[in-house]
Amino acid sequence: MWLRNRQGTEPVTARSPLGARRALSLVALVVAVIAAVFFVVRAMSTGQAVWGWEAAIAGAVAVVAAADLAVLRRRRERGR
């Protein structure tokens, strides 16, 4: 078994950080989508361009978080 032939100083009971990464990506996705919607509504009501840029940034964060979740799902499915 590969675990018994390990090299380095990693403990035998080490856990993968993918669970924490998944949780952080989920939180980032939810917060970014809520923020993007808020900023879009704010931009439409005030007419100020700064809110549109804020919405674009929040949307980009949401896209990155969604892509990270897709990568994690693919890794999990490939590992089985």
From TrEMBL:
Pfam family, one: DUF6343
UniProt key word Membrane: yes
Protein name (database record): Uncharacterized protein
Record keywords, A-Z: Membrane, Transmembrane, Transmembrane helix
Lineage summary: Bacteria, Bacillati, Actinomycetota, Actinomycetes, Streptosporangiales
TM region positions: 23-44, 50-72
